[in-house]
Amino acid sequence: MVKLLMRADTHVSFTVPAEEPVAKCTFSQVLAALSVSLGSMVVGFSSAYTSPALVSMKDRNITSFEVTDQSGSWVGGIMPLAGLAGGILGGPLIEYLGRKNTILATATPFIISWLLIACATHVAMVLVGRALSGFSVGVASLSLPVYLGETVQPEVRGTLGLLPTAFGNIGILLCFVAGKYMDWSGLAFLGAALPIPFLLLMFLIPETPRWYVSRGRDDRARKALQWLRGKKADVDPELKGIIKSHQDAERHASQSAMLDLMKKANLKPLLISLGLMFFQQLSGINAVIFYTVQIFQDAGSTIDENLCTIIVGVVNFIATFIATMLIDRLGRKMLLYISDVAMIITLMTLGGFFYVKNSGQDVSQVGWLPLAAFVIYVLGFSLGFGPIPWLMMGEILPGKIRGSAASVATAFNWSCTFIVTKTFADIINAIGTHGTFWMFGSICVIGLAFVIFYVPETQGKSLEDIERKMMGRVRRMSSVANIKPLSFNM
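That's the Facilitated trehalose transporter Tret1 sequence above. Prediction below.
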């Protein structure tokens, strides 16, 4: 890196030395991202389980105990409630146990929860297993983005930071495909096997340097940073930046975590994170996914409903893979713009289709339209508003309050998930299918304005730079001097 001191209006030519190293993503960082992403695959599998499993679970020829429609709804509904509890407790856990140890601690409950479900002789065992699984999902969904945000270098944080979402979608797809051939018990045994490679790989990676610094263990932080950046990397400048950022946060901190959250400087990034979580869930993704089968039927499709869910899983995965390739080139905001516009157009289109259909007009000539709109909607969501709120949660929340703030954001996300899922049928009864899609589309319009005016671009910035900017600690230069350091990465 060549650093020059120059006036803002000065034009210079310069030559970069040939031996100047290019910032590279080390194998260690990839291994760290892959390890936590396998945990996200378990989360995805857990989230998708009820969709294929409930059908065979309600079949008395397969299941020795009765699962009513009411108890079946709780098999699905208890997970976001337990996820809410996991989100609340996950914040203190990642502060006291560390990011790595908290993630590691979810593996055993995941295995136990799946074995409880697989060996269930009563619906209560299934509910307990789903609750334990949901709690682990809540903790994991909070701690995974925080770990990656604190370990991966800025140049590739977007790409590697989306790996958990990509693997989460692989977990969803795996569950849908396996669910076509397995009953609920066999599917649960498969779920119990998934955390094992995740558990083994997590022992190979270090705790985050920023957590070590927060505990005054600078030597351990240096070792962790050296492991992540490579043996030959000079980690001193980055380590000094982490220590300085922590010291600044300590000077401005109070004795109460909640009081820290309410400070104006901390409240801004927290509210941005909450806003992203709100618009993620109020885009109607869970409600639209819930309505998949009906959309396919209204399109005149004879495709098997299990195959429909597999199509959803494939679309999810492809979109996230595309986002992984683009996020460090286009940036977070551009992908959010594309995502939001795609959802607005498709939701309004779906609303228009159902309005015309419900008014009694013949829509057979455009029977393909809802299916096409649905696929584009899922693509749009998975490209931006699906993964980026979680990625940015690990980026924009200040280090001192990252645990407690991430806890609040995760709990809020699960609360929105539960509300949207449980009220969807009531909303349709109140304003009709078309009105429901138009409502979600209108919320996406507001979400677009929110992204334009309030969400910062974090592409290529270190966590310390993001924190200083978000908290207003950027030193303003005199307009007379107007001299600033320029960094050229070649």
